[in-house]
Amino acid sequence: MADSTPSSPGKSLPVIDVSALVADGAGREPVAAQIGAACRAHGFFYVTGHGVDPALVQRLEDLSRRFFAQDEPTKMRWRMALGGRAWRGYFPLGGELTSGRPDWKEGLYLGTELPADHPLVRAGTPVHGPNLFPDIDGFRATVLAYIDAVTRLGHRLMEGIALSLGLPAAYFAERYTADPLILFRIFNYPTQPVPEGMDVHWGVGEHTDYGLLTILRQDDVGGLQVRTPGGWIEAPPVAQSFVCNIGDMLDRMTGGLYKSTPHRVTRNTSGRDRLSFPLFFDPNFEARVRRIEGLDSAATDDSAERWDRANVHAFSGRYGDYLLAKVSKVFPQLRDEVL
Ligand SMILES: O=C(O)CCC(=O)C(=O)O
Ligand SMILES: [Fe+2]
């Protein structure tokens, strides 16, 4: 297949030092300009100088390795079926589909921790609720501290994105993300081979993300690839960084000026398991997503080129409805139980 080999070894994604943006003072504009250029060119960029404590990230990685090292019956004690509408818990290898095919990964679905008596949870709002934390010492506190730290970074990055579009820094916070929907996943891409006869091609098949901004930590194994107009390129590990990419809602809001760029993860044959930690910084579940006025963009229907053949510009409604329509394709068995 012509498109399955990453080309253009000389091409790489930009690495942006966002410390001035995180400090929230002078010097934000040049950082915002770099983010804007990256969003227009690739929809993907790395951030350094992000202020997230490296010791926290290391702790999360160590605890995650301990979780996945357990046998499957043990991990299934936290299976997603037990998370109900909150959509939380463990899914085993091959348990998640992209474009109808199983991905070669296992993972833990997490998100903002809401108690069972929170009004949104009592009202049965999907993807809101308590997490299913494995009973490993420190796991819960570490995950919650990590979600908190990376969510704070998400707010700063969205301010940078707003400035890069010529909007007030608080544009997104005022309309969509004062109370963002935060979903967080921990994935393990095992190095073990796929059994004979299974229809598995990728760690994660080609897709775009659904919301505003994905902030991803990956370990040092590699395998993430990004589709550019010139072909697929690698997004290799960069020490102490996060990989950021734009989701469908920012594509929708900007009329395609900032594209939600397709990406995928190759099957892991490195000899070591690969861990990745995507945090999805998304509009509030109830937010109605609208086009930003005054941008120089055409909102062209690009559904023919998209992995899901969908026209994001035709979407109108609550972000939650967009998300649920997507998620139910990824976990068909849960859709039947939960929705
Ligand atoms: O594991 C990765 O590097 C990417 C995961 C991803 O694309 C996703 O969860 O949306
Ligand atoms: Fe993704």
TrEMBL record:
<keyword id="KW-0408">Iron</keyword>
<keyword id="KW-0560">Oxidoreductase</keyword>
<keyword id="KW-0266">Ethylene biosynthesis</keyword>
<dbReference type="InterPro" id="IPR027443">
    <property type="entry name" value="IPNS-like_sf"/>
</dbReference>
<dbReference type="Pfam" id="PF03171">
    <property type="entry name" value="2OG-FeII_Oxy"/>
</dbReference>
<dbReference type="InterPro" id="IPR044861">
    <property type="entry name" value="IPNS-like_FE2OG_OXY"/>
</dbReference>
<dbReference type="InterPro" id="IPR005123">
    <property type="entry name" value="Oxoglu/Fe-dep_dioxygenase_dom"/>
</dbReference>
<dbReference type="Pfam" id="PF14226">
    <property type="entry name" value="DIOX_N"/>
</dbReference>
<dbReference type="InterPro" id="IPR050231">
    <property type="entry name" value="Iron_ascorbate_oxido_reductase"/>
</dbReference>
<comment type="similarity">
    <text>Belongs to the iron/ascorbate-dependent oxidoreductase family.</text>
</comment>
<dbReference type="InterPro" id="IPR026992">
    <property type="entry name" value="DIOX_N"/>
</dbReference>
<keyword id="KW-0479">Metal-binding</keyword>
<feature type="domain" description="Fe2OG dioxygenase">
    <location>
        <begin position="177"/>
        <end position="283"/>
    </location>
</feature>
<protein>
    <recommendedName>
        <fullName>2-oxoglutarate-dependent ethylene/succinate-forming enzyme</fullName>
        <ecNumber>1.13.12.19</ecNumber>
        <ecNumber>1.14.20.7</ecNumber>
    </recommendedName>
</protein>
<comment type="pathway">
    <text>Alkene biosynthesis; ethylene biosynthesis via 2-oxoglutarate.</text>
</comment>
